[in-house]
Amino acid sequence: MAVMEPDTKPNWDSLDARPLPSWYDESKIGIFLHWGVFSVPSFGDEWFWYYWRTGAKQYVNYMAENYKPDFTYQDFAADFTTDLFNPNEWAEIFKASGAKYLVLTSKHHEGFTNWPSKYSFSWNSMDVGPKRDLVGELAAAIRNRTDIHFGVYHSLFEWFNPLFLQDQANNFATRDFALRKAMPELYELVERYQPEVIWSDGAAAIDTYWNSTGFLAWLYNDSPVKDVVVTNDRWGTNTDCKHGGFFSCTDRYNPGTLQKHKWENAMTIDKYSWGFRREARLADMLSMEELLSEVVSTVSCGGNILINVGPTKDGRIVPIFEERLRSLGQWLNVNGAAIYGTSPWVYQNDTVTKDVWYTSKKNSQGSLDVFAILLQWPDPGNFFLGSPTPTQNTEVTLLGYDTPIKWTASAAHAQGITVLIPAIPFNKMPCNYAWVLKLENLASLPRHYALDEY
């Protein structure tokens, strides 16, 4: 694990110089959970309250057709029952997925806290709805039953909190909401649950309004997770993709090229929503091929991927989400060597053949193994990779397949390798998608970037 700075100062130069704890980059894959009162209507998406209150026709019509005229958003909370929530079952699903960290929504923009916060009176999961400490129960199950790192998402602002709206009306010259609500919640979360990821969102004002640098300096110097915690970049309207731990930049951020700073692709299996929605169709869900394409392209370019599912109001991970997560875990059981603990190679995509991504990792002998991840299974016969340069000692294997793969050097090019793809019987194929060729003892090539910021 990287050595932490002994005294990080409350300014961005000092905060940004803190090295990320090594567990985060090595993990590569996390699970994101969007769960709250919005899971009760489970219609449209997790911004239900905002769209309804601001007059979006789809939401206004839905409420007019299904609820009494005097029904309020707060009335939904009583039906946030979580009566089928079994945190041990969730922990087993997430462990089977192969994910190495988890980020649970502790509070979304609606302001409802999934723990009994003393700063959220009668609008938290103990006082109304579940009558349970959802954050605490899941944290305990994850830590008791898995080796997954537990983290929390926290929205700084709240759409309709009167304190926030007053500060906003004052052009944030006043800071009552930040001082009395948002930041005390964050300190409470850290001290009570000791999350190893703080995923901040909803900044809505510049960092000085929140005193983000002051909180982060405390987090890195004095908090109970000071040596292990990682944070993202959403600490002010002026900090996205500029300051913080890893960069989350925008939702579903996947630039497709190597980045100089550690980054994360927070994305959704449901293409249109972070929260569960009852009207979702199968076609709205990422297929395994699409999901693995996101995973592979993200990791190849130096990122982590945070894969979101939305639990139901009664506390279930619905079968389509469970199936995708378990299938991901089955794929990682075969091909995890090409994902966990890897680094970007000189090339991210193959220079000649499309739908091929690369990762690399030092082996026990200190030399570099390169993994070519094929999103499409090629026809049997010669398959050309334009980026690797073989040596006489090069070996090629297909992860999960026992027989070595034959290859020849390119006769027409100084760079490149021709791999002989065997005709593998269906019942001998190591996996159903995204096959990985491991290339050992290639010729050395210069790096495009020195990723000193990682």
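Above is the first protein from milestone M3; the second protein from the same milestone is given next.
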Amino acid sequence: MGSTSRKHKPNEWAAKINHTHIINDSFIKNFINNCSLPMSSFDIDKNDTDCLKTLNANIHNPIKYILAVDGGYTTVEVKKNFPSAQFAFFQFGAVLFNIEDLDALSKKPFIFPEDMQKLHNLERFKLAIPIKNIVVKNESSLKDSIRKSVYDFFMKERDQTSLMETLKWFIFEEYSDTPIDSYSLASNPNLNVGTGEFILKRNSINSDYTFNSPSGIVYLTDVFRLHEVIDEEHGAIGILGYLTRLIEQLILVHFMRIIFKCQKQWLKEFLFIADGPLSFSGQTANMHKPMRNLCNYFLQSENLFLVGLEKSGPFVEHAREIADPPSGKPVLDRGKYILPSNKYIYKYIIPGDFSTMHYGKTSYYSGKVIFHSYDGQILVLTVPVPDKNAIINPKKKDFANLDIILLNIQKLKCDMYDDTVVPVALANKLVSLANHPSKVLLEKFATSTYNK
């Protein structure tokens, strides 16, 4: 591996000829020849497309408001002579607007700044955590520093409430008439991983949302289990993607709670949009169970319109392949959508054995929808489903409010970017942290603040 010099010596570059040893190796050639790749559109069996369905566009649309959440992060080095010392800065945004404003906007021959301002009703959430070779004051380790940083972020009061209140409401199912009494944490964060579970009892929670244990304080935010994958020497860069997806979805839950508490009948008029699939990944995957319980409760008691929008990955690549192939007739025509089964996923999208593998079993609370809209958008969506078995052989009845969701997603077309919709594009524009100049300026900010 090459390396760059920090002084006036030349950089150590990788050699330019060593690839020939790989290309000429018979073991490597044999390995590549024995790999399976995703199939092209002309390889798809017609019998596997019987699940194609047509969008019913002639239905009553109850949606009046759109709320979309997006977020991002960037990492920066704090000290020039210690580039291993790093912070991560996160920014999340929730965009809310009235769908009537969007409809009116689409009919105007010219769009003025004051018109766009109606769609910029944004609330920002900011977070910073140490990820390598940095310890927060009064904390003894990187693990405890990150635990405390996440805890403080959730405890921050915003509009007379906090994300921590929402987390308690979410974990212990306080939205229902029969909240649960306890939640099992796989391991005590103050002990080594694998030393046994720790039970969080609802009636034992302290006023500051902590729990007492003989080995030390346990935060309610420890339910995310991030402490299990933090390495004191190599850092915690691996948790950043997990944490981003987690907070994005819990911000949506936060607004659901506020609406449910203040005017719960409004839930029937909101479409909630998450950037990315409705799932939790890595160590946070256990959150998919309480999220499924919340969705099922709202669908039965009030109603819920929730969707995740994917912009990249194998499902998006497959969607383009079947809806807009390089040559030949598309498998998925305009106005059609497909609910890919477990067999379909492992046969055409992600190579695997569908008879022994269950896609999304331990992380998804939703099912996939591949949609080719009437106006040509090619979208991959996820919509809540009642249980994990709905993914194996999906039925339309398992995807509550699907036609209404697709109808509104189609209305939110964004011509600026591929595979996105207006609210997500707006949220991304308003909270994303670019390498230039955002990363450079944040690095200067962190360095100057640290040195004070």
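Note on the second protein: Residues 108-112, 433-439 have pLDDT under 50 and may be disordered.
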